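Batch job 17 of 40 flagged for manual review because the log was empty.
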Amino acid sequence: MDRRNNRRDAEGSSVVTANRLLDGRIVWLDPAGKWQLSIAQAQTFSNDGMEAVLARQTAKAAEDEVVGIYGVQVEPSSSGPEPITTRERIRAFGPSVHAAFTPAWQPLSGSAGV
């Protein structure tokens, strides 16, 4: 079990995240098995089945060109899944700095597939 995976409740739900190997961008697994830049497009999985999902995605990480695959517990919200921890909220919705210091490549909303 990944060290971050111990933060998931048995009854909760999670999404799968990773970093894109090419540029380090944070990506989220969608229902079609593609990696997206927006958590709003992420597929939600039951926590009791996450180990199998993570094993499957880790096995094809090189093919998908992603690294650091792990599960993030989320709660449903009107805009899509929302991580329950501060760290993961920053990863999903960041940055945690003033907008004037946001990198030019950081999208304001929406996403593009990987």
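Reviewer: the log was empty due to a logging misconfiguration, but the result itself is present. The chain is about 20% helix and 25% strand. Unflagging and moving on to job 18.
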